[in-house]
């Protein structure tokens, strides 16, 4: 049954004095009647007591039975089986009539909310189907108490709700690589568990203490094993699920010694964990074990696990497998191993989720392991992202993506039984809460979740302020849409956040949103200024005078660019917010300042001062020009440099990786139909910076995944003209051969490796290739690759007519 949203449900069923009370002043005190039957239920009531004090203006009193006399509204909280024992005799009939009318199912984790009439007093029952349902009912209550109209909860139309997905989980990696969690204590993890449970999350997945990372972190407040054990105990205390993510990392499980050592380590871990509800073992990312060795190893681990945790489920993935290993994987799954519960689908899977669902027996469940943390070089890259954002804010920035993930969730929801969110810290905090609500109901509105997020965490004091805050978060996503310098949303988004900032709760969640908005605005100002300086330098290089004068004018233009007072203030604020976010949330936005593992792992403060124009390259080229033997040669080289970015008439040019400058790139299906971009060209950026002497046009590239060719198409070409094709191969340090085919059959380049990075290659095209006035180009890589499927990267392409 789908969740009935609060806004749609706030219809009065009470009459008389109860309605009059609820529509008068907001109640400032209510009585909670609860008589917990188990430690788990007691923990839920304790959570309500403590969190209501943080998130609500309503004062709650707690009692184990109905007070004989009270002027306070009453909230009765229990499991459904217990409700009748707590209700007075004169409410029993009304309660049974409500149950008959709603006809609630017995679905696990479901809960019922029903207003009743009692002594002219507002009275609301929140009844869980089980202890976890009771907890999620309390979560619903806390979200409503945080809203601006608290009285409305007592006039809520009765409803029953249960989650669509039985598993709704998030991952914790207590490890050096993480951008936040290696600095957290158990109380901080407990607060996060509570926060996510309030929005419907039921599973904590924890990476094993030994993973593909350093064994320790300089930020650890406690050893990894101690923390993982504490997280398992914490999940048990709240009656929530605990999942162990356990990669197999030894070199060769074909060796008996490696198997034995792994099994000993595994048993030593699981016997110390108070609770394990499920085990997830990836085939790769990390790990490299072929399925024919992995399956028998996991079978033995399953036997060990069940000695200590008999009800634990076992999940495995095909991540990282090449085509041959996938075929073995599917063959082994056809045998329907008795120890295996299901398969999970995550990043670096060469076969998409629809293919896996088709190939895997229906009896074997399929779970989703989506990457909600990364914006590039990832499972769900931000589509057509301006490369300046990629260069500065990087792969792991503050990244609320309500619109993008709405589409992604609904695209995949019919194919899986639940999800575990791959995350590397709190940079994706907003996304976690969006997914929690979609896991409860795929019809949930992202905007409504954001308004509840604003009420609950940011203490938006009115519906209007919550709406404004939700819209501002949505605007952060729009900041990344389209060319950076043309995006007028960016200053408006920052201005809106500043306008609503004063009355808001200034905690780390608010500051993270502000940090993103400030970074976007700062980068836009800096890029605009540095592009202007670059243009002035090129104009100077085209001028007259001696070579020394020309060179000096160009160098002066590059060096004299100074930031405005606004840019300076944004820079200062960015660093101040980063410092506050580290001390309040452990978010590591810098390697040198906060001991982040590397800049790609969220440390984008370290890119705030990186050059955003081709200054270093231009200065290097000026130096080369000035080394020429004669004055005439020096001036000639400087004048040639002046036109380095110019495209001559008739030449067709693509700056691949720059979404606004690749007109001949065949983009493919597009991200809405193909969210993981298996059949869609991807705009990316290399692991370089411009201070190392690369041109910006080399830094950005287009690529495709696995066997999908990178295609370009040209129309209206001159017939009979022997075109010349110039290609810059540049990108990350992949050593993968590429083949170039024209018009589907003419090989222009057999499979070959890039000789240098970058590398410029030219091809003379036979006039017959363009005789029909059009041209199709396709770059392919050898088939069957595994891993992430990346590496076929091209930075620039010119199609130059014969006259040039």
From TrEMBL:
Keywords: Hydrolase, Signal
GO BP annotations, alphabetical order: carbohydrate metabolic process
Keyword Hydrolase among record annotations: yes
GO molecular function annotation: hydrolase activity
Signal peptide: 1-20
Keyword Transcription regulation: no
InterPro entries in UniProt: Hex-like_dom2
Protein name: Alpha glucuronidase N-terminal domain-containing protein
Gene3D superfamilies per the UniProt record, alphabetical: Chitobiase/beta-hexosaminidase domain 2-like
Organism: Terriglobus albidus
Superkingdom of origin organism: Bacteria
């Amino acid at each position: 049954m789908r969740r009935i949203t609060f806004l749609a449900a706030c219809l009065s069923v009470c009459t008389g004095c109860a309605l009059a009370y609820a529509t008068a002043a907001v109640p400032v005190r209510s009585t909670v009647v609860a008589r917990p039957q188990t430690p788990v239920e007691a923990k839920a009531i304790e959570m309500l007591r403590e969190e209501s004090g943080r998130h609500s203006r309503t004062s709650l009193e707690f009692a184990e039975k109905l007070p004989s006399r009270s002027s306070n509204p009453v909230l009765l909280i229990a499991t459904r089986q217990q409700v009748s024992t707590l209700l007075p005799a004169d409410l029993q009939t009304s309660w049974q009539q409500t149950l008959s009318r709603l006809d609630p199912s017995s679905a696990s984790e479901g809960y019922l909310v029903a207003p009743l009439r009692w002594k002219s007093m507002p009275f609301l029952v929140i009844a869980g189907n089980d202890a976890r349902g009771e907890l999620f009912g309390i979560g619903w209550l806390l979200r409503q108490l945080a809203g601006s109209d608290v009285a409305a909860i007592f006039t809520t139309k009765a409803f029953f709700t249960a989650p669509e997905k039985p598993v709704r989980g998030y991952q914790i990696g207590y490890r050096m690589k993480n951008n936040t969690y290696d600095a957290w204590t158990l109380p901080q993890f407990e607060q996060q568990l509570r926060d996510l449970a309030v929005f419907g999350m039921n599973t904590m997945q924890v990476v094993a203490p030994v993973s593909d990372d350093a064994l320790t972190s300089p930020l650890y407040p406690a050893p990894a094993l101690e923390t993982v054990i504490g997280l398992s105990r914490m999940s048990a205390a709240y009656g929530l699920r605990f999942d162990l993510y356990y990669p197999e990392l030894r070199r060769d499980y074909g060796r008996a010694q490696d198997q034995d050592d792994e099994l000993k380590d595994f048993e030593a871990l699981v016997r110390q964990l108070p609770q394990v509800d499920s085990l997830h073992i990836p085939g790769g990312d990390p790990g490299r074990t072929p399925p024919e060795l992995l399956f028998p190893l996991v079978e033995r681990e399953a036997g060990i696990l069940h000695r200590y945790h008999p009800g634990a489920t076992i999940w495995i993935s095909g991540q990282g497998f090449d085509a041959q290993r996938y075929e073995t994987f599917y063959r082994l799954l056809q045998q329907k191993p008795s120890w295996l519960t299901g398969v999970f689908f995550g990043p670096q899977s060469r076969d998409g989720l629809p293919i896996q669902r088709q190939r895997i027996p229906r009896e074997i469940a399929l779970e989703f392991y989506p990457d909600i943390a990364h914006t590039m070089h990832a499972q769900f890259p931000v589509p057509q992202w301006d490369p300046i954002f990629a260069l500065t804010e990087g792969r792991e920035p503050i990244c609320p993506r309500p619109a993008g993930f709405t589409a992604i969730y609904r695209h995949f929801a019919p194919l899986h039984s639940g999800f575990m969110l791959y995350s590397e810290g709190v940079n994706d905090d907003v996304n976690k809460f969006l997914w929690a609500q979609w896991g409860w109901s795929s019809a949930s509105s992202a905007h409504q979740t954001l308004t509840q997020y604003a009420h609950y965490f940011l203490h938006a004091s009115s519906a209007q302020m919550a709406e404004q805050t939700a819209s501002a978060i949505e605007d952060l996503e729009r900041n990344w849409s389209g060319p950076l310098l043309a995006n007028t949303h960016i200053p408006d988004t920052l201005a809106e956040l500043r306008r609503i900032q004063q009355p808001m709760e200034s905690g780390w969640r608010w500051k993270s949103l502000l940090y993103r908005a400030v970074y976007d605005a700062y980068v836009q100002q800096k890029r605009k200024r540095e592009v202007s300086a670059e243009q002035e330098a090129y104009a100077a290089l085209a001028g007259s005078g001696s070579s020394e004068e020309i060179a000096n004018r160009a160098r002066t233009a590059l060096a004299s660019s100074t930031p405005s007072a606004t840019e300076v203030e944004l820079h200062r604020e960015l660093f101040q917010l980063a410092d506050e976010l580290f001390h309040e949330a452990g978010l590591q936005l810098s390697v040198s300042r906060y001991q982040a593992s590397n800049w790609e792992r969220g440390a984008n403060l370290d890119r705030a001062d990186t050059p955003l124009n081709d200054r270093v390259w231009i200065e290097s080229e000026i130096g080369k020009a000035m080394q020429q033997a004669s004055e005439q040669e020096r001036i000639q080289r400087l004048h040639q440099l002046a036109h380095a970015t110019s495209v001559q008439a008739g030449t067709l040019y693509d700056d691949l990786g720059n979404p606004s400058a690749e007109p001949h790139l065949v983009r493919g299906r597009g991200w809405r139909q193909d969210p993981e971009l298996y059949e869609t060209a991807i705009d990316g950026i290399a692991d370089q910076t411009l201070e190392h002497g690369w041109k910006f046009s080399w830094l950005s590239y287009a690529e495709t995944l696995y066997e999908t060719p990178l295609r370009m198409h040209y129309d209206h070409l001159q017939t009979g003209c022997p075109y010349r094709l110039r290609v810059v191969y540049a990108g990350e340090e992949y050593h993968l051969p590429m083949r170039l085919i024209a018009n589907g059959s003419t090989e222009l380049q057999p499979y070959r490796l890039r000789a240098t990075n970058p590398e410029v290659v030219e091809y003379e095209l036979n006039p017959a290739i363009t005789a029909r006035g059009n041209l199709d180009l396709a770059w392919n890589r050898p088939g069957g690759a595994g891993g992430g499927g990346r590496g076929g990267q091209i930075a620039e392409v010119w199609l130059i007519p014969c006259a040039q």
